[in-house]
Known about the structure:
Strand order of the largest sheet: 3-2-1-4-5-8-9-10-11
Low-confidence stretches: none
Number of helices: 9
Bound molecules: 3-hydroxy-5-(hydroxymethyl)-2-methylisonicotinaldehyde
Distance between the termini: 8 Å
CATH class: Alpha Beta
Largest sheet: 9 strands, mixed
Order of helices and strands: EHEEHEHEEEHEHHEEEHHH
Radius of gyration: 18 Å
Number of domains: 1
Structural class: alpha/beta
Amino acid sequence: MNIKRVAAIHDLSGVGKCSLTVALPVLCAMGAEVCALPTAVLSTHTGGISGFTYRDLTDDLPRVVRHWASLGLKFDAVYTGFASSAEQLKAMRDALPSLRSTDTLMFIDPVMGDAGKLYKTYTPEMADATRELCAVADVITPNRTEAALLTRTDLTTGVRPEAEIRALCRKLSDLGPRRVALTGVETSGGRVGAAAWDAGTEEFVIHSAPIVEGAWHGTGDLFASVTLGALMLGRALPEAVGIATAFTHGCIARTKLNGTDPRFGVAFECALGELTALAASAKNHSA
Ligand code: PXL
């Protein structure tokens, strides 16, 4: 079986499971080869933890990409997330032609902020550069805050009419990507989940699970990584979003039960076998 290769361009935060420390195990469990290109190295992520160390790797990105290109490497997906600078986001865009072939999936998680605020190290210039990067994406996975920033609309919260969520997804796909997975979508009955929108087919679905009160760090990265893994196993976006929503909810619920500090990420490790089983069943179907 042909192993899919992903270029994962995110930060490496040593503590506080997010970004590469989530993307690597999740995508490997789903049968992909992950080539990591760190955008920064931090002692911890920046959400709710002070005193973190931060090494900006903006200068390294073009050099790594040049070396990879010189080796003739091609990627089935390019997966980007948390960046260090507007310059680095522009460099990601410039790097794409040498990383992609005609059928490479450009999967862009426009990481910028949450709960109505930019992350500590993000600037308005970085938000503009992220919007420009989304123009070359096939799939984007913003949360509600990031969707508002990308579309330059006001953030709305709580349960919203389905027509409003669909219109927001359409605005996001108007920026360039044909497919959108929008997270943090609340539905009635105390549920939250994600919408999947395909501007090509106009298909729109919302998958949700019960809300578990709390601020669950790294769950956007977990959701995006599982969604990408499922797409690479041949699932369509609506199904991939359903898988990622259920998996993310399971990890959050387990973390709540465990009672660990939510700033340090959710308990996903013991559930990686579920993702491997999914990959094994895809392999059996295609065998
Ligand atoms: O999960 C998003 C994220 C990724 N990387 C770093 C972060 C955050 C959110 O706070 O700080 C370094």
